Amino acid sequence: MLRGRLFWLIWLLVGCQLLWTAMRAFQAPWVWNPYQAITALFLLTLAVGAVWLALMWQREGQDGIRRRIAAFETELDAPGSAAALRWNLAFWLVAGVLVFVYFRMEQG
């Protein structure tokens, strides 16, 4: 697992990329170009994630969320963890798709 500064650097780069995509999305009239579709998808998933976190916070409180995070990190750190394999596979699959889409958008 990525920990410490490298973890935050990756999130900083993701945030900068999303900000750049959103700026490109709103430079043109709304016609559902790829930048606008990615921005809308990001905002939708951000809203869903915020609602899910708020409901979990309401149900379990701050200590419940901390316990869930600790249990998840323990599961990911276990040798031969199926959860770690799934998350790694999902990360690289999504990263590959995003890189492919990014370069396809820049060509067009």
Overview of this protein structure:
This protein has helices at residues 5-25, 34-77, 82-107. With 108 residues, the chain is mostly helical. The chain has one domain (5-107). The chain is globular. It starts with a helix and ends with a helix.
At a glance:
The chain is mainly α.
Topology summary:
Layout lengths: L4 H21 L8 H44 L4 H26 L1
Structural class: mainly alpha
How many domains comprise the coordinates?
1
What is the strand content? under 5%
Mean pLDDT: 83
DSSP E strands, number: 0
Shape: globular
Oligomer: single chain
End-to-end gap:
36 Å
Record keyword descriptors for this entry.
about 85% helix; mainly alpha; 3 helices; about 110 residues; globular
